[in-house]
Amino acid sequence: MTGGCFSNMITENSLFLSDKSMKTKILYLVSIFSMFLGLLPSASNAEQISQNWVWSVEQDYAFAATNNEQKRIFGQFCYYKTGLCAYIVDLGITCKKSDVFPSLVNTDAGARKFDLICGRRLHDSNALIIKPFRSIDSLVTHNKNIGFAVALRNGKFKVVHFSLLGSKQAIKMMRSYAKQNAKPPSIDPDDQPSQKPLTPNNPNTKGKYL
Fold first, then answer.
1. What digits encode the pLDDT tens for the residues 105-150?
2. How far apart are CA 130 and CA 116, in angstroms?
3. Domain limits of the chain?
């Protein structure tokens, strides 16, 4: 999956802020790329809450994310060391790390196909990295709702929805702070490999992974 470069920014009711298990789970998502563990911002930090989304700037990374009524997580994570960002989603699916799942992503603008790369195991499922970055970024910041449909091995489909209300502002604020902390400040994801790769085994899958 191609991560988003800081220098190329594109300007269901959330239970995220009040649910302690969600705070723990978001930290597991962060651990996909970083072993740094921190706490989500408290609900009293109003400047870090944007409708159904929350954003936070930490020591090694920054993120903007939400969750839905099924307590699944979706958000964008940016890492200062590489200067790269990635969208990560938890759909409640278990899979083998680096497996690629074709997914139909539906928004107010219609449906599009994306690839989901299986990442590290969470409590009861695996995190999935969404690619290509720039395409999903545009959908997230210009729509009100998003849904992911993935075909499972048993022939059934897994469908999960998230609210995008507040996503554009949360991501804008998060990335403005992340850009200031990026080291190096600008990396072309197509030319520069990440320092913390999560690379699929399939040699035909292009892109750099955080």
1. 999 999 999 999 999 887 788 999 999 999 999 999 999 999 999 9
2. 5
3. 4-181
Total Cβ atoms within 10 A of residue 108: 11
Angle between helices 133-140 and 167-181 (to 10 degrees): 130
CA distance 84 to 178: 10
List, as one string, the DSSP characters of 48-59.
Answer: GEETTEEEEE-S
Per DSSP, helices labelled H in the chain are 20-30, 133-140, 167-181
Q: pTM, whole model, 2 decimals?
A: 0.69
Q: Count CA atoms closer than 13 A to 66's CA, side-chain side.
A: 26
Distance between CA 160 and CA 68 in Å, rounded? Answer: 9
Name the β-bridge partners of 127. Answer: 90
* Fold classified for 4-181: Immunoglobulin-like (2.60.40)
Find all residues with CB under 8 Å of 74, minimum gap 6, and list them. 65, 66, 67, 68, 87, 88, 89, 90, 146, 162
Number of H helices, E strands in the chain: 3, 11
C-alpha 85/C-alpha 8 separation (Å) is: 11
